[in-house]
TrEMBL record:
SMART domains listed in its UniProt record: AAA (SM00382)
Top-rank taxon: Bacteria
Annotated protein name in UniProt: ABC transporter ATP-binding protein
Keyword Transport: yes
Domain ABC transporter, first and last residues per copy: 3-229
The keyword ATP-binding is assigned to this record: yes
SUPFAM superfamilies: P-loop containing nucleoside triphosphate hydrolases (SSF52540)
Pfam families xrefs: ABC_tran
Coiled coil: none
Length: 231
């Protein structure tokens, strides 16, 4: 399975943000998406998730059965969590599982899902408006893991997690990567290098993959920084 992006363009008024993105993301890999502030990482995710219209180009998923439109097979974890705050964590999970019942393979007891995310028993029946930023982020991550979409877009998802949870999330993402395409945007280069199989840089509106042969060399970080400085 691949997520194929062809000549994708997006501008906001006169500002050209995505200037012809061409890329093939493959199943079984975690891609680290790096770019300067305002480079267009979130815009790229919003386009692929069809939250905003694109100006030109195409994107789709291709597998052994042919090609299919991408958005239905995408899970998107936003950097600012977006959960219904008027529900408790338990109500949210119950509702999510009910409306996605046909999609969810291997359904588990709700408390097992909370356990997976290390959400305390005392917090499970609280309104999510009283959850911390990190707890809301965990809930958003959790529903995406339960739905197990083919493509998982993660917009700086680990930054609000404490170090223990961040490490657990890293291990969890590694454990599910074989069956997914995971694209992970971050400003933390060490995290990208530690977690990701490929590093992709969004610069001047296009995507560029950094040669894997550099991955273990000392000069790799410098190469990324030099590429990002070129703007
Ligand atoms: N809805 C919008 N209307 C107008 N301009 C927008 C809109 N959304 C994004 N932009 C502009 O597009 C550019 C790319 O923004 P985007 O949020 O995609 O960057 P980013 O790489 O995710 O940045 P950061 O790393 O700082 O989060 C910025 O110049 C931003 O101001």
């Amino acid at each position: 399975m691949k997520l194929i992006i062809k000549d994708l363009k997006k501008s906001f008024e006169k500002k050209e943000v995505l200037n012809g993105i061409n890329f093939e993301f493959e199943k079984g890999k975690i891609y680290g998406l790096l770019g300067r502030n305002g480079a267009g990482k979130t815009t790229l995710f919003n386009c692929i998730n069809e939250d905003i219209p694109i100006d030109a180009g195409d994107f789709y998923i291709e597998d052994e059965n042919g090609s299919k439109p991408a958005p239905e097979y995408i899970g998107y974890v936003l950097s600012t969590p977006n959960v219904p705050e008027f529900l408790t964590g338990r109500e949210f999970l119950k509702f999510f599982i009910e409306i996605n019942e046909h999609k969810i393979k291997d359904k588990k007891d709700i408390d097992l899902y909370f356990d997976l995310m290390k959400i305390n028993e005392s917090d499970r029946d609280k309104l999510m408006k009283d959850y911390s930023h990190g707890m809301k982020n965990k809930m958003q991550m959790l529903v995406n893991i339960i739905a197990s979409p083919d493509v998982l877009l993660l917009d700086e998802p680990l930054t609000s997690f404490d170090v223990v949870v961040a490490e657990e999330m890293k291990q969890m993402l590694k454990s599910i990567k074989d069956n997914h395409i995971i694209i992970f945007s971050t400003h933390i280069m060490e995290l990208a290098l530690d977690l990701c199989d490929e590093i992709v840089i969004l610069n001047k509106g296009i995507l560029e993959q950094i040669d894997k042969n550099y991955l273990d060399s000392d000069s790799f970080k410098n190469k990324i920084i030099e590429t990002l400085k070129e703007e």
